[in-house]
Write a structure and sequence with these properties.
81 residues, mainly alpha, single chain
């Protein structure tokens, strides 16, 4: 099972980036993130979370965006039983 802790961390980074591009739709932003990081796999379905996380972090750093702390840390993912 994948680590559920990755979810709020990834969402916080995505929120930071998306808040600077509010006119973009989510899929546009995701495509831009992956295409600008020279990823050859453009099918979002197959991109692992760690690759997406790295690409988002890279864009945040390249654009000198401030990373927001938010209450997403309290996010509780669905649990499989």
């Amino acid at each position: 099972m994948r680590d559920p802790e990755r979810i709020p961390q990834l969402l916080n980074k995505l929120k930071t980036l998306w808040s600077h591009y509010p006119d973009m739709r989510l899929c546009q932003l995701l495509y831009l993130i992956m295409s600008t990081d020279n990823h050859t796999d453009k099918e979002l379905f197959f991109i692992e979370d760690d690759r997406l996380d790295s690409a988002i972090q890279k864009m945040i750093q390249e654009r000198n965006l401030s990373q927001q702390d938010d209450n997403l840390e309290k996010f509780v993912p669905f649990r499989r039983e």
